[in-house]
Amino acid sequence: MSLIEETIAAVRPLDEAAVREAREHQARLTKPPGSLGVLEEVSVRLAGLAGRCPPPLPEPAAVAIFAADHGVHAQGVTPWPQEVTAQMVANFLAGGAVVNAFAGQVGATVTVVDVGVAAELGPAPGLLARKVAPGTADMTEGPAMTPGQARQAMETGIEVARDLAGDGARCLLTGDMGIANTTASAALIAAFTGLPPERVTGRGTGIDDRTHAHKVEVVRAALARHGLLPTPDSGRSGTAPVTRPEAERILAAVGGLEHAALAGFILGAAALRVPVVLDGVIAGAAALVAAAMAPDVLGACVAGHRSAEPGHSATVGHLGLRPLVDLELRLGEGTGALLALPLVQGAVRVLHEVATFDSAGVSGKDPGRSHDTITE
Ligand SMILES: O=C(O)c1ccc[n+]([C@@H]2O[C@H](COP(=O)([O-])O)[C@@H](O)[C@H]2O)c1
Ligand SMILES: Cc1cc2nc[nH]c2cc1C
């Protein structure tokens, strides 16, 4: 069995007994039931993932930033030169980026993985040299990747998840760096959700109306080139689940090497039953790929934040994920996932540390009073 097959086979549903136990435990804690809102659901899900209640605290945490370049950059979809990808990798390694500041704040490690940067990167502490190719090909002219390249990048992501968990990480966070990767993300999201390019293509790092209109047409052209454009008679409605071979074809046709690696990273985390906090639109697009290949992967995924990219809202809606933080961020690198990390950790800590009504001698709700009379 290949590493990908083996990983997919290891992705299992949540443990129902642990889910039940966590729900019951939440109801016994000294707070009105449900008063921690979405955080209660997060804690229950992580108990189901771990197969026990309470689940292990999701710490220490590790961010993996997958970096790669994109052939579609040649179509003029971003104002930034391609070399900024390699320059920002150097900045991450030097500790000078926003991701480093946010990671330092929560004690997370930062690992940068070169899966496809279009420049030679010298060895450096914190850098994993795993280049599959020096960037993808232009998706408007042909497939962005060969099937072999896409699989190699996915396997790299799986291996990085395994290595970080092997080194002790109990929570994995996604990060990405790749000038023009919001164009590839939009194409992936349109292909998986069946939504039209104009609904899922955003302004990325910041573009004017004219460039945005052009970017939408580039996404449309790429989808049309690969038979992925949702039209009334194409059968691509977005309602039918995408099969695994089709998911791999879509990934290779319009994805990036970092999307492939992130899809592997998410699958790898789920197979190890380690929670993975997703960053923005690039991670969301990769999660669509991973979920098409192994739907139970979603049990391990927490949407860290809602990106300002319209395609990201479409993605989390499609996957049924609820972003924890909503601050109009559109940076990537893992920054939104890192801001959400204390929320995920707090959600689990409640199951470990909060007293029950019985143990603390606090009276529960008066059973004689109905909900209606209390709110009157
Ligand atoms: O994470 C997001 O949702 C996000 C939204 C917009 C831009 N980015 C980052 O910006 C870069 C891609 O932007 P662009 O405009 O060149 O496609 C890439 O390095 C991403 O990490 C990231
Ligand atoms: C400066 C810069 C920093 C980034 N970090 C993630 N994507 C980025 C894109 C740019 C352009």
Automatic annotation (TrEMBL):
Annotated EC: 2.4.2.21
GO biological process annotation, one example: cobalamin biosynthetic process
Pathway membership: Nucleoside biosynthesis; alpha-ribazole biosynthesis; alpha-ribazole from 5,6-dimethylbenzimidazole: step 1/2
Keywords: Cobalamin biosynthesis, Glycosyltransferase, Transferase
MF GO annotations: nicotinate-nucleotide-dimethylbenzimidazole phosphoribosyltransferase activity
Reactions catalysed, as given in the entry: 5,6-dimethylbenzimidazole + nicotinate beta-D-ribonucleotide = alpha-ribazole 5'-phosphate + nicotinate + H(+)
Enzyme class name: transferase
Catalytic residues (UniProt): 333 (proton acceptor)
Source species, domain of life: Bacteria
Function: Catalyzes the synthesis of alpha-ribazole-5'-phosphate from nicotinate mononucleotide (NAMN) and 5,6-dimethylbenzimidazole (DMB).
NCBIfam families registered for this protein in UniProt: cobT_DBIPRT (TIGR03160), PRK00105.1 (NF000996)
Family membership: Belongs to the CobT family.
Record-given protein name: Nicotinate-nucleotide--dimethylbenzimidazole phosphoribosyltransferase
Species lineage: Bacteria, Bacillati, Actinomycetota, Actinomycetes, Streptosporangiales
Gene: cobT
